[in-house]
Amino acid sequence: MKYPLLRIAMAVGLAGSSALALAETQVERGEYLTRAADCMACHTAKGGAPYAGGLPIDSPFGTIYGTNITPSKEHGIGLYNDDEFFAALNEGKRRDGANLYPAMPYTSYHRVTREDADAIHAYLKTVEPIERAAPETSLSFPFNVRPGIIAWNLMYGDGVPLESPEGKSQAWQRGQYMVDVLGHCGECHTPRGMAGAMQADKRMMGGVLNGYLAPSLLARDLADRGWSHEDLSSFLKLGMSDQGTMFNEMYPVFHNSTQYLADDDLNAIATFLLGDQPPEARVLNEVPLDQVSSSAQRGRQQYLNVCAGCHAPGGEGKPHIAVAMRGNTTLRLDDPRNLLRVIEDGIGEQKFTGFERMQPMPGFADKLDQQALTDLLNYLRQTWGGKDSDLVLADVQALQEEASPE
């Protein structure tokens, strides 16, 4: 061999380059998976550095703060090795062995594969370390006793059982992993029992979160609200569709997560939610004013007073300004709380993909009394939502009291 040292140097160099390329591939994949798992939503405070923690998460048991998951060795996860990170993700175990509160969705993440967990960890090691501690979580007794979570984990740590993949397409199976595991959608869209655990017998049937309904994601319910496979995958990508726009808790999910997903994964999510043989999306026709209730007829004037300027007198909406009432999925919900909350609270300005925007919608809590709200809700739900029964004043009062228990 004429140049043995050169050959050795080249071999070492090529091996190093190969390892570097492999590491870069793992980091890139980890970044994508971190987006899919929507880690930023809970671990980034409003206006704060990415993944530095500090976001307050309200729960029935007190306020829980998202932790710092940057590579800070003092305040973040800089000292975690891959095994310890995997245990945190899959079992809710901190590096020191203490139990994490189940606000961390390890009941869903415990099915994340080891390969995916290692990739997520590899990516998080590359983000800027932020040397700041997140605020300390303080819960009421007995939920502030971390050893008590051991018993909770024994009963609920495995989360809601997954539907059998037998006979399902590859797209459906990928969608199940994206929805039930990485996306942990059931954590919001499944109701919870007294102990705060997801109710297995009501999987994806909808749950109330901070006064709003995370609606049912069951296939028949989605189709009844007008969702087709194409509309649903497009909605996740763009944040908007003929059915409306993402708002409230779903807007950060779009902003931080779903808009970055590959088309194949978006289609897989839609396939899983609607099924390999999706039910036909229900199409509604506008109901004429003389065919709605007297309350809804009175609500027409309220609509013209406070809604029509942006949403148009005929409910067609205005591009880049306000969504249409025709085909709007929120109006079709049996539970009127989201519609009531939006009317009272309003929606902030929304930035979607490209140059698409929606202007802020003001709240009208100080402009509409309870009877006017009831009439307006009936008009919207009966004219464009397919509802044929009236809400009464007591329904609106109960929802308002529920939103403001004090």
From TrEMBL:
This is Cytochrome c domain-containing protein. One of its GO terms (molecular function) is heme binding. Residues 25-128, 170-277, 294-384 form the Cytochrome c domain. The keyword Magnesium does not apply. Pfam families: Cytochrom_C. One of its GO terms (cellular component) is membrane. Keywords: Heme, Iron, Metal-binding. It comes from marine sediment metagenome. Gene3D superfamilies: Cytochrome c-like domain. InterPro entries: Cyt_c-like_dom, Cyt_c-like_dom_sf, Cytochrome_c-type_DH, Membr-bd_ADH_cyt_c.
